[in-house]
Specification:
globular, mainly alpha, two-stranded antiparallel ribbon, binds zinc ion, single chain
Length: 380
């Protein structure tokens, strides 16, 4: 008799599986069929697009950066808005989602612990992890989200999730359809297609953003930075940065990089609806980048013949940069402490501030030299 040694696959989760299959099939077949036989108008298309934005931004700015990472604090009106949008997005409760996500960061790529480990393959990290009962989250009572349990909006959504998800997901498209006149068309676009598209766009953060792109901050995990994925995911495509500095309310650092989730949070701050936006100190970011570049260039050079002298020069440039950054960080800390003290005279504080600015200019100058040196070496 032949023994079956392959491990038994966990049981199927019928509820999510049915939601994905039914919404996916309707979007693939019923939506194009209806478009050809009846057509959709601008109102219906707008309802779908606005719905996708509402769902995605509630997940990225709400479920992800606000609740999972506590990257900022938000007024209850904002939290209510994201809770409704997240329920409309049908991605489980805030508590469940955040609990899984915190484990993802803690045990990223660990196939036995990360709920959506990218090392188990693209399909698994995209949707497969939800379709079977893998049961990788040991926090049965959401012990890793004690802070979120104090939020009444989070708990209300968690307790009444099923009736909320059904009433919002049927209610909004039905009301829109009754107002519009074409109920079936509105249900198909604002209901089903909106759900399927917003699902897959968000799922790309766990799958594509762990496969495709660059790793300017760390190669200790599979996360990637990719501006194209950022376009699809409201800025979450700068995922390598995010895995290095998960508490930062920004995923993209530069103003020209596409991160509408960051822009929204910043706008909420300007109108007084968000506060305590967390930004990673510049020195931490620069050191992480420099370490990664040193590692890459060293490994490139070590494959070449007689490159010891260049590697030594590389390390000298690197040490100089790190010293400059550390000096800047040290005086910046002094200045920040002094600002809090009432004992310091205004002109002393001003002098300290000038010193910080000079040291910052020094380190940025050395950063330029460092980057130029790396580029020259890589081209040679
Ligand atoms: Zn990730
Ligand atoms: Zn995250």
């Amino acid at each position: 008799m032949k023994l079956n040694t392959s491990p038994q696959k966990p049981a199927l989760n019928w509820l999510p599986l049915s939601v994905f299959v039914i919404s996916g099939l309707l979007t693939l077949f019923a939506v194009p069929y209806y478009a050809l036989t009846h057509g959709f108008d601008g109102w219906q298309i707008a309802a779908m697009i606005i719905g996708i934005i509402f769902c995605e931004i509630s997940i990225t700015a709400g479920y992800h950066r606000l609740w999972s990472h506590r990257a900022y604090e938000a007024h209850w009106l904002v939290r209510l808005f994201f809770a409704i949008g997240g329920t409309y997005a049908v991605q489980n409760t805030i508590l469940h989602w955040s609990s899984d996500h915190r484990i993802h960061h803690r045990h990223v790529d660990n196939n036995d612990k990360d709920p959506y480990s990218a090392k188990r393959g693209f399909w698994y990290s995209h949707m497969g992890w939800m379709i079977r009962d893998y049961d990788l989250n040991p926090n049965k009572e959401f012990e890793n989200c004690k802070d979120l349990k104090k939020d009444p909006i989070v708990m209300f959504q968690h307790k009444h999730y099923l009736p909320l998800v059904l009433s919002i997901n049927f209610g909004i498209p039905i009301l829109l359809g009754l107002w519009h006149g074409d109920l079936i068309g509105m249900m198909l676009l604002a209901g089903v297609a909106r759900l399927t598209i917003s699902h897959h766009l968000t799922f790309f953060i766990n799958s594509l953003a762990h496969v495709w792109g660059s790793q300017p901050y760390s190669d200790k995990n599979t996360s990637r930075d990719n501006p194209l994925i950022a376009l699809l995911t409201f800025g979450e495509g700068y995922h390598n940065y995010h895995h290095s500095f998960q508490r930062d309310y920004r995923n993209a650092l530069r103003w020209w990089q596409y991160d509408p989730t960051k822009w929204l949070i910043r706008s909420l701050y300007f109108v007084g609806l968000a506060k305590n936006l967390y930004r990673t100190p510049l020195e931490y970011i620069e050191i992480e980048r420099a370490q990664m570049l040193l590692k890459n260039t060293t490994s490139k050079l070590s494959r070449r013949f007689q490159s010891e002298a260049l590697i030594q020069r590389l390390h000298e440039e690197y040490d100089m940069l790190i010293n400059n950054i550390n000096e800047f960080a040290r005086v910046k800390r002094q200045w920040m402490e002094a600002r809090k003290s009432s004992m310091i005279e205004a002109y002393d504080l001003e002098a300290l501030n000038e010193k910080v600015e000079t040291l910052k200019a020094n380190f940025l100058e050395q950063k330029k030299n460092w980057l130029n040196f790396n580029a020259r070496v890589a081209m040679a």
